Every structure is written in C-alpha cells, then in structure tokens.
C-alpha cells in the first residue's frame, strides 16, 4: 500500500514544514529579545485549552463506548462466565464512576485556578480528615471487589462438581492445537515427549491400558451442559489456550500439565442465533465482501495467547459445542488410539 | 552521627577535592567526567537516543498492524532483508515489539529517567557537592553506555534481534530452534541486560548512600523534596530487585550455553527430544517478575516525584499532604514486592497464590488513589503557571488515574483470565506506566533544562509538543481497551487469521495514524531540546521561582555546585504562597522569620 506511505510521508513533511516555519518565527522572536517566561496570557490560553481538550477527551471516551462497546465479546457461553461478567460489570461501573468524576475535576481545576495577575494561591498544606476520607473510600470499594473477586476465583479454580467432568487434553505445539479425548474410561493414557514418533504426535504411551480408548482429533467438540476438565500440555514453548467466548484461559507449559474446568452452556447453533453475534457476523461479512473474501460463519475458537514464534498469530482451532447426542455421534466416528497407533 | 558533623565532614572532603581541581579538556569534561551534573546529561542524551530508536520501531510495527502483510517501501528501507518487497516478516515484527519494550522500559524509562534526574537532582536538592562516589557514578553511566551499544548491535546480527517479547520467557527465548531471534540476538540481549543491571546497581547504591549521608545541615528526611524521596525509594527498589533479574538472566544463559535445565524440561523440537529435564519455565517467570513488578515502580516513582515538585512549584502552593505523599510512596514500594504473581494468574500456579496476589495487588490502588487526590487538591485554589512542565505533570495525573483504574480489573485474578495478554493489558500499562513516566520525564526536562544547560527551552514549541503528544497518546492507547474487550490478543503479527477480528481493523488504522502523528510530534521536542542547548535564551538563576536548593546554585556549572559554603536548610521545600511572606515562595535556605511558624 504505497498510498499509505505517501500519506505518512505527507504528514511528516507537513509537520516538518510547520516546525521549520515556527523555528524561523521563534528565532526572530529570540533575536528581538522577547521574554520566554510564561505570561498571564499564556496561563489563560493554556488553562482554557486544558478545559477544552480535557473535556474533549472525556466526551470522546463516551463516544468510544457508544461506537465500539458493541465490539466486546458476546455474553459468555460458559456457566462460570456469567459470574465473571457480573464481577466485570461491577468493576467497570466503579472505575467508570471514578473516571468520570476525577478527570473532569482535574481538568476543571486546571482551568479554574489558572494563574492570574495579582492573585495568590491559598496556603493549604494538609487536612487529615480529608485524606483519611479518600483513603477509606477506595479501601471500602476495593474490599468489596477483593472479596467478591476471590470468591469468583475460588469457584473457578476449585469447582465442586455434581457430576464427574469429562476429561479432555488440549495439546499445543508450534503452531497448532491437538485434542485428546479420554474415551470411555474417562482417563487419559500416559503421554510423554519421549514417545513422540511418526503419527504419535502427542507421545501417547500405547503400553498404558488407559490410552487404548483415547481419541485424538484436530477439532474440539464439546457437549453442552457438561463440565469439561481440560488438561493442557505443550511440547515446545509456552502457549496459552485462550477461549474468549467461554471466559477461560490457561497457559500450556512444557514439562508440566495445567488444568482448567468449565461447562459450556450455549451450543454453536444457539450462539449463531444470538442477536449480538448475528450483528457481528453481518458486519464482518460486509467487510469481507468488500475485500472479496469468503463469507464467515461464527464459530467458537481457541486462540494461542502467549507469544510462541513466527506463526503465533495464526495458531487456532475451531470449537464446536453441540448437544450430547450430536457429540456422542461425532465421537463415535473418530478413531481411537488403539485403532490408529 | 549527628547531621552537623556529617555536613562538616562533607564540606571538608569536598573542599579538599576542589583544591585539586585543575583545567579540564574535552575528554575529562564531557566524556570521563565524574561530575554528577554532566553524568545526568550523559544519561539523558543516551536515553533520548535510545528513545528515538524505540519510538521509531513502534511506528514501524504499528504500520504493519494497521495494514497487515501489505507492502511499504519504507519498511524495506529500514528492515532490509526482514521486509522483502516491503512486506514485514513475522519474525521481525516480534523482534520490533520485543526491542521496543526492552528499550522503552529499561533504557529510556529506567536509565534515561532515573539516571538523569537522580544524578542531576540528588546532590543539588539535598545540598551536597557531588555524589558519594563520583567514580562509581561514572562507572554506572559507562556500563549503561556499553549496555546500549550491545543492545543496538544486536539489531544487526544475521538471525535478527531478540524476539521472544520483552519478558523473554523461556523456552522460546532459550532455544535458537524456537525462533531466529533466540539465536545470537538473544545472547546479545542477555549480555546487554547484564551490563545494564550492573549500571543500575552502581547508580542505585550511590543514590542511597548520598541521600542518607550527605544531606546538608537542616535537611532532615522530612524536609526532603518529594523528588528526592521518590529517587531514594526507587534506588532501594532497584538494589533489592535487579539482582534477582541478574540471576534470572544468568540461569537463562546457562541453559542456553552450558546445557543446564533450570527452565527447561520435556521439550520436543525440530524432530527430536531435547536433553533438558527437570526444569520449570514458570521459575523464570517468578524470578523475572520479582524484578518486573518493582520495575514498574522504578519507572513510575521518579515520574511521580518530579510531578510532585513541578505541580507544587507551578501551582504556587505546598504539595498537599506531604506526609501522606511520602507514606504512599513507601506503601507502594513495599507492596510492589509482593504482587509479582499478578502477571502469572494463568500460568497454572496454585490458585491460593492467585488469591494472595489479587489481594495485595488491589491494595496498591489505595496509596495510588491518595496520591492522585493529593495532586488534584494541590491544584485547588492554586495560581497555576502553565509551563510546559506543568502541562505534562497535569497530563501525568490524568494518565495515572486512567491507567490505574484499569489496574483494578487486571489485578483481579478472576477478571484477568479473560483479558490477560490482550490489548486491554497493552492499553493499561502503556497509559499508567509508559505515558505517565514519559510525561514525568518530559516535565523534568522542561523544568530542569535551565539547570542543566543554563538556557531556557522555547515555550511555544513546548506547548505544541505537549498538546500533540497528549491528544495523540490517548488516541493511540485508549481505543486499545476496546480491542482487548473484543478478545484481541497482543503480539499478533496480523489479525486477519481470525474473521471475528475483521471489524476491528478500522480501529487499528486509527491508532496507527495517531501513533505516526504522535511520533512525528516528538521531533518538535528534539529540535527544541538541541536548539535551546546552544541558542535558547539565557536562564535566570531561579526561573520558576522554586524553593528547593538547586535554584540557589549559580547558572554556570561549577565543580562542587556552590561557590561558597553549602547552603543550610531551615524549612521544607514547599513554602509557596505562605501567609506573611512577601513573595509567593520562600527558598529552603531562608531562615524562619521572627515569629514565623515552621508550618510543616
């Protein structure tokens, strides 16, 4: 896109020219021996600019919320996601209240108390009660957020299950994902990098009886409403399994197994009917049509979210959430480790 | 030892030094100087040079993010074989991101900021003739210089500079097979950082010793300007945390060069199992962030200290709640050592640890809030003089608040899960740490330029620089929150691989425009800076009518700072607009008038 580099160049040239003009202006000013001190007129101009630009910034934040708020992820498709989102909403409410109070005050004070000739500032060095007040208010607000946050965190990380979760391994390597289902015994066979050979890309130990019914796939299918216990492994560098629609993320660390559990609550078919998702898909497809690209249909997706090398930006896998029946039917079609290795 | 005897010894020692003072040539004056003022300027110029490289890199990769995989001749011009036909290679994209981060965090905002202003201001503001050890001080600069040279050299190696992100997590950074940047570029990165850490430790030890031992008579700790408190606490943080990074870097070197397995285990790469066994990549992260988080405050505290001074001076008011400001600096510094785990919520560490780190992290918001409110109250009923330095300091309060608030989200482990490593994080730390610190640095340069060079910077260019920077910087980083909330991960060479992000492309283009204009606006500053060194109007001794001791020294720099005796201090640094005083400022070396209460 040479057009853009031309635009960039033009902007740079204009800025340089403006500055050169300024410079000659300024050097002539200096030669006349003009004072470079801040004058009452400067204070007036800069104070007014503070008010103008400051409030311009605050208003543009509102505009950004209106214009881009819709880009936020759709409502969560996992059971715990709703809890995260309520905590998120409360935190956002609190920080926005603070933002929209403190920023206007800052810029208003800068404007209101801009230096004027003949005025003197008020000598006001401290006020313990005031300081105590604004120590206590944040402390109280944070106490609420901390207690609620820790509560949500512990239910996420140490979930109590009514039914036994399905055990699924997500395996990372530069630059793709592989899935291993634990099969009928709901137990993953032992696996180690030392067993990696040929088609056995996960290094599954075929001698381990638990591995026989394991199923290795390149797509992540999940039954709706069932808790899924994920085990994450990586064979080379650190990757991060990021499931934005399920509000889930866990690093895949070579040399150890990490875990995360969630229960998908919305099937792929259902989320495609979601009003926000529909609008998103429509918007994206309009853009893609203009660029002559394929039409896109919404799919849950697993992304790599830890820098892992050149193709980090394209390390992905589709996730399909479906009914138990559909899931069972799909799983049945897949070959077990005993059949493939 | 009482203050008096310390001062006497100090004076005696310094007088002795001055007797042996002889004619200086170019080399002893500008290069191998041991004078703290010149060393401060050396740090500043080197930091600015590195800053230009770092900012230019960001403009190159912003171009790539806005127009992924498109051809720009300018990219081939700068990147050569890494941008064949003007299309950026993903490896060099990651390298640019990595070196941009490294340069900005360490070379500009640690050495460039702390190195410059601690060196310049500590002796001048505490009433000392120089640093405790001039030689160590010079050594600190030359280690920094060597470190910069090695880092810049690493840009030109065959396999490209380090590219594993500025945090250089192993195994990615440990194994040359993992990415080209983990070859010779990474080795040079580690050597450079090792030199850098030595520089930082030499400097910090010197700052601590100087502040504790060389204050002039009457300069009790509670009369120190807040700048000195900030530099002092920063130095303590550096001394306690940089050695841990040194050990992390050394162990990583061992893994790379000697075949040890501190961070590596069970790795299959390039068709074979590597012989590493038993190490943990997460160990590196613990060591790295044990420095990494205090590092955030090593960057931020000096900026906060500078803005405290600038805001008080230019509001013509005492800083509101001096003791609370000192207390919150200490509280932030203490807490900064027990929050590092919030960078690692999703590494699979024990969930209980996550709870502890959430708790300690969110506590930092309390002293931070106190600081923000105290700044704003300092403005209240002031008589604000809008120097460029004052504008940048007010902008610092704004970014400190904006960026600090999103910290409440990211510090909460449960919420961090979904925005970890997305653009939400990029927005957060650039605003709260990057912008605040760079604004503090600009404020410091504009404010103390007359002290450094005896001339004034041009105010009109200062205003133009400020407004362009303030508007474009928010224009770059605020929209990134929305990218993060849409789930867009950071460090993606291109977002085109995921159709779900297609509708964010426009925002990325907008950000890039702001970035290019904002980057270009820095040319105004650079021109103003160098022009004013030689052609700026001559400065008065105390151009901002400030109270602290640096303004009692002559405009022309002399060895030992004060021609006669070192001034004696009778009051704190913030007697601005004191009732009963004739002028709206009373310098620290003015004795209390009869019947005057010392107030503070």
Descriptive account of the structure:
The complex is a heterodimer of chains A (341) and B (600). Chain A is of the alpha+beta class and 341 residues long. Chain A has helices at 2-31, 40-68, 79-112, 128-157, 268-271, 275-290, 324-333, 337-340; strands at 166-173, 176-181, 215-217, 220-223, 228-234, 239-243, 248-252, 258-262, 300-304, 316-322. Chain A has two domains: 39-115 and 127-158, no CATH class; 166-340, Cupredoxins -  blue copper proteins (Immunoglobulin-like, Sandwich), CATH 2.60.40.420. In chain A, strand 1 (166-173) and strand 2 form a beta hairpin. Chain A starts with a helix and ends with a helix. Chain B has one domain: Cytochrome C Oxidase, Chain A, CATH 1.20.210.10. Chain B has a two-stranded antiparallel ribbon. Chain B contains 17 helices and two strands. With 600 residues, chain B is mainly alpha-helical. Residues 1-7 of chain B have low confidence and may be disordered. Chain B has helices at residues 3-19, 26-31, 36-66, 73-79, 90-126, 134-154, 184-213, 226-257, 281-315, 322-336, 351-363, 365-379, 388-410, 413-419, 423-453, 459-485, 505-535; strands at residues 268-269, 272-273. The longest helix of chain B is centred in the first third of the chain and has 37 residues, at 90-126.
Q: Write the element-wise H/E pattern of chain B from the N-terminal end onward.
A: HHHHHHHHEEHHHHHHHHH
**Beta-strand residue fraction of chain B:** under 5%
Low-confidence stretches of chain A are none
Number of separate strands of chain B: 2
Strand content of chain A: 15-25%
Give the low-confidence spans of chain B.
1-7
Structural class of chain A: alpha+beta
- Give helix % range of chain A: 40-55%
Average pLDDT taken over every residue of chain A: 91
Average pLDDT score of chain B:
93
Estimated radius of gyration of chain A: 29 Å
Q: Hey, which two chains have the biggest interface?
A: A-B, 131 and 141 residues
Terminal CA distance of chain B: 25 Å
Q: What's the total number of strands of chain A?
A: 10
Distance between the termini of chain A: 49 Å
């Amino acid at each position: 896109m040479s057009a853009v580099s031309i635009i960039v160049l033009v902007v740079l040239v204009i800025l340089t020219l403006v500055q050169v003009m300024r410079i000659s202006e300024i050097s002539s000013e200096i030669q006349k021996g003009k004072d470079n001190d801040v004058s009452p007129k400067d204070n007036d101009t800069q104070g007014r600019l503070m008010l103008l630009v400051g409030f311009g910034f605050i208003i543009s934040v509102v505009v950004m919320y209106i214009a881009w708020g819709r880009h936020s992820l759709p409502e969560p498709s996992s059971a715990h996601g709703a809890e995260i989102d309520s905590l998120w909403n409360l935190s956002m409410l609190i920080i926005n209240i603070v933002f929209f109070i403190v920023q206007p005050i800052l810029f208003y004070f800068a404007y209101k108390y801009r230096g004027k000739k003949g005025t003197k500032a008020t000598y006001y060095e401290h006020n313990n009660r005031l300081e105590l007040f604004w120590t206590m208010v944040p402390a109280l607000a944070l106490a609420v957020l901390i207690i609620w946050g820790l509560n949500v965190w512990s239910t996420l990380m140490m979930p109590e299950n009514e039914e036994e979760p399905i055990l699924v391994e997500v395996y990372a390597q530069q630059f793709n994902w592989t899935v291993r289902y634990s099969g009928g015994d709901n137990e993953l066979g032992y696996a180690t990098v030392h067993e990696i050979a040929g088609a056995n890309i996960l290094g599954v130990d075929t001698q381990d009886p638990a591995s026989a019914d394991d199923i290795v796939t390149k797509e992540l299918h999940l039954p709706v409403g069932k808790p899924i216990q994920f085990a994450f492994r990586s064979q080379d560098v650190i990757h991060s399994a990021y499931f934005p629609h399920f509000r889930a993320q866990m690093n895949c660390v070579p040399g150890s197994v990490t875990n995360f559990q969630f229960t998908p609550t919305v099937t792929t078919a259902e989320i495609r009917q979601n009003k926000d998702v529909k609008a998103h898909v429509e918007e994206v497809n309009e853009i893609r049509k203009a660029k002559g690209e394929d039409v896109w249909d919404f799919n849950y997706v697993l992304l790599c979210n830890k820098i892992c090398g050149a193709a980090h930006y394209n390390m992905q896998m589709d996730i399909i959430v479906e009914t138990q029946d559909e899931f069972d039917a799909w799983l049945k079609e897949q070959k077990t480790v005993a059949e493939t290795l | 030892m009482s203050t008096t005897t310390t001062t006497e010894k100090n004076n005696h020692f310094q007088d002795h030094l001055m007797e042996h003072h002889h004619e200086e040539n170019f080399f002893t004056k500008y290069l191998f100087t041991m004078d703290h003022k010149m060393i401060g300027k050396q740090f500043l110029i080197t930091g600015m040079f590195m800053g230009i490289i770092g900012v230019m890199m960001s403009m190159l990769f912003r171009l790539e993010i806005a127009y992924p995989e498109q051809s720009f001749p300018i990219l081939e011009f700068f990147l050569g074989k890494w941008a064949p036909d003007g299309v950026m290679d993903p490896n060099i994209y990651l390298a640019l991101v990595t070196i941009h981060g490294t340069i900005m965090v360490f070379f500009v905002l640690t050495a460039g900021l702390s190195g410059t202003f601690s060196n310049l201001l500590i002796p001048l503001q505490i009433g000392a003739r120089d640093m405790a050890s001039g030689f160590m001080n010079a050594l600190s600069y030359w280690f920094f210089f060597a470190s910069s040279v090695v880092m810049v050299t690493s840009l030109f190696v065959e396999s490209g500079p380090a590219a594993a992100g500025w945090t250089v997590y192993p195994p990615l950074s440990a194994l040359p097979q993992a990415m080209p940047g983990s070859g010779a570029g990474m080795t040079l990165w580690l050597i450079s950082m090792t030199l850098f850490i030595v520089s930082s430790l030499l400097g910090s030890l010197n700052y601590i010793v100087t502040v504790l031992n060389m204050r002039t008579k009457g300069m009790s700790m509670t009369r120190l300007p807040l700048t000195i408190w900030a530099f002092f606490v920063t130095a303590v943080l550096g001394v306690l945390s940089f050695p841990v990074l040194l050990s992390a870097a050394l162990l990583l070197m061992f893994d790379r060069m000697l075949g040890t397995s501190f961070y590596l285990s069970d790795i299959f790469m390039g068709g074979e199992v590597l012989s590493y066994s038993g190490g943990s990549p997460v160990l590196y992260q613990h060591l790295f962030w044990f420095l990494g988080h205090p590092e955030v405050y090593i960057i931020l505290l000096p900026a906060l200290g500078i803005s405290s001074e600038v805001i008080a001076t230019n509001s013509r008011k005492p800083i509101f709640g001096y003791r609370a400001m000192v207390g919150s600096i200490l509280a932030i510094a203490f807490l900064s050592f027990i929050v590092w785990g919030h960078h690692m919520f999703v590494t699979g560490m024990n969930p209980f640890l996550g709870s502890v780190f959430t708790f300690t992290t969110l506590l930092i918001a309390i002293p931070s809030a106190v600081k923000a409110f105290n700044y704003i109250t300092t403005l209240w009923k002031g008589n604000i003089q809008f120097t460029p330095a004052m504008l940048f300091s007010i902008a610092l309060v704004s970014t400190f608040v904006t960026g600090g608030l999103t910290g409440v989200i990211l510090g909460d482990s449960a919420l961090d899960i979904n925005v970890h490593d997305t653009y939400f994080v990029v927005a957060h730390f650039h605003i709260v740490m990057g912008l605040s610190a760079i604004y503090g640095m600009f404020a410091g340069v504009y404010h103390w330029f007359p002290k450094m060079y005896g001339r004034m910077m041009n105010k009109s260019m200062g205003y133009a620089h400020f407004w362009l920077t303030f508007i474009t910087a928010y224009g770059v980083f605020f929209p990134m929150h929305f990218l993060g909330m849409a789930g867009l991960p950071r460090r993606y060479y291109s977002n085109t691989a995921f159709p779900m992000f297609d509708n964010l492309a426009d925002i990325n283009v907008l950000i890039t425009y702001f970035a290019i204009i904002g980057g270009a606006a820095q040319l105004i500053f650079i021109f103003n800076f160098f022009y004013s060194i030689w052609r700026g109007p001559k400065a008065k001794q105390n151009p901002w009518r400030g109270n602290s001791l640096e303004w009692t020294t002559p405009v022309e720099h002399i060895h030992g700072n004060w021609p006669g005796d070192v001034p004696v201090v009778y009051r704190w640094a913030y007697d601005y607009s004191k009732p009963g005083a004739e002028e709206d400022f009373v310098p620290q070396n003015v004795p209390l008038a009869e019947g005057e209460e010392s107030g503070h």
